[in-house]
Amino acid sequence: MTTNTAAGHSEKKGDPKRHPVVASVRNLKKDFGEQKVLADISLDLHETENLVILGRSGTGKSVLIKCMVGLIRADAGEVTVLGYDVNTLTPEQLNEMRQQIGFSFQSSALYDSMTVRENLAFPLKRNLKIYDRKQQDEMINTALQDVGLENTAGKMPAELSGGMKKRIGIARTLILNPKIMLYDEPTAGLDPMTSTEINELILKVREKYKTSSIIITHDISCARQTSDRIIALVNGLNKAEATFGELEHTEDPDLAPFFKY
Amino acid sequence: MNFKPILLLCANVYRFARRIFKQAFHPPFEWREILSQCYAMGNRSLFLISFTNFLAGVVFTRQSRPSLASFGAESWLPSLVSQAVVRSLGPLITGLICAGKLGSNIGAELASMKVTEQIDAMEVSGTRPFSFLVVSRVAATTLMLPLLVVYADMVSLFGSYLTVHFMNNTSFRLYFNDVSGHITYLDIFSSLIKATFFGFAIGFVSSYAGYNSENGTIGVGKAANIAVVVSMVMIFVIDLLTLQFINLLR
After folding, report:
1. For chain B: N or C, fewer Cβ within 10 A?
2. What is the CATH number for A187?
3. A223 in Cβ contact with A248 (< 8 Å)
4. What per-residue string of b and e applies to B27-43 under the rule 16 or more CB within 10 Å gives b?
5. pLDDT bracket for residue A10 (50, 70, 90)
6. What is the pTM of this model?
7. CB neighbour list of residue A138: distance below 8 Å, 6 or more residues apart
8. What is this model's ipTM?
9. Is A61 a domain residue?
């Protein structure tokens, strides 16, 4: 529904909020010792929606999505992803759920002792039990083409730039055809042009793979380009929930500084 | 004194061990990764083990000879050396070398994977990293140490033979007849049992230190350090315990 004329990129059609909910978080709380990180967070992610979680560093954005995939156990609250109640899953069920979720790390988290090809082949062998090299190559080439890095299969992660690492990290998750994508600071540390390319990639991934995505960011241009809806986190609480256009002119002292840059 | 951290550590170590045993005997097994780790570990430590054990054989022979000569018991030299090497020196030197070489490697490798979120990335894609990274490494050290100890014993005895040969012009056949006549099956058994426990301890301690490391690059150094130091201490403790146990069987 939102039209991002400012970025001049995507015109998003249909209201994703009308689509079924694929993940929901209710009254999520998480403390690290004395530090309250998530005070009371609730959200719904709808099918094919791009939901941006916006907030300053240290407001618990990454903790939130790590709770959603069971990497961090919440102190209280409910997390339901693709029908799985994350807090009560057995390790096998958790693995089953995780195979349907793509997680793009802030640091890209490529396996640095493996080539790009091996990075992409790893989930194929481990999850899908595909050992046939020809079949692997076909799937790897498709994933690499989708992220625009066809000729990098033989390279080591150390030979890639920051933007390329992000793309390969995304390709590694796409190879398993995820239903939900979680992007943790996808444009952090990248120059504006590369950031724009990553933002376009996020939109392209949604188009091609019909994914629902949560995008964690403090980069306002990323939020502008990719979001259908934004949830702003302040002090571990949902401060606001609206489209970019609705938030853009906010006078809330906690949120307004974001939109001035 | 605050016992809470000690009790927490014990609980974590217990949970880690239980997870290893549970996944080690629960399919799917990590055969490929275990074999690849075995090859890498053997390959990585072979030169150092050959060098140190050869020198140990030479030095021990040269040091023991004058003492035995003063009693007119020089002919007992192969027997003394073989028992010392097989029962104690071979496993101990190999264990310590592997604790340094493999322990630091496993500790630092897993810790840096942890710090750079590579383990988390494996975890969230449902690829069972614990089994792939930890179980395979613990299995590989446990399987490889006995093989390396057998090899180390042979190298050490060869070093001893060369020393005796150059001093007394003793033949290879005579020397090894003497050696084999004084080594019992119990000696070999005790040596292999020790080596197996050494291997497990090195794999377990190093993986635990690496997999649970925190605090960025400082954590990587700390994990490598803990892996080496604790593995070495464990080797001496295991050596003492197995000695007590084997003495009961003699």
Report:
1. N
2. 3.40.50.300
3. no
4. eeebeebbeebbeebbe
5. very low
6. 0.86
7. none
8. 0.85
9. yes
Q: Does A69 touch chain B (CB under 8 A)?
A: yes
Q: Does A175 touch chain B (CB under 8 A)?
A: no
Confidence at residue A4, expressed as pLDDT on a 0 to 100 scale: 36
**Short-list B246, B6, B58, CA closest to B165:** B58
Residue A8 lies in a domain: no
What average pLDDT does this structure show over A142-146?
94
Cβ–Cβ < 8 Å for B33, B94? no
Query: CA-nearest residue of chain B to A92?
Result: B126
Q: Residue A78 belongs to what domain range?
A: 19-111+178-259
**Torsion from C-alpha of A94, A22, A217, A41, nearest 10 degrees:** -80
Taking only the tens place, the pLDDT of each residue in A59-95 is 889 999 999 999 999 999 999 999 999 999 998 899 9
> Cβ(A179)–Cβ(A146) under 8 Å?
no
Lowest mean per-residue pLDDT among A116-120, B12-16, B51-55, B214-218: B214-218
Residue A13 pLDDT level (bands cut at 50, 70, 90): very low
CA distances from B205 to A186, B30, B131, B143, B239 (A): 36, 20, 16, 16, 16
> Considering chain B, what is the average pLDDT of its residues?
92
A47: in domain: yes
How many domains would you assign to chain A? 1
Tokens, residue B63: 């040091």
Task: Give the B window 61-120 contacts with A, CB below 8 Å.
Answer: 113, 116-118, 120
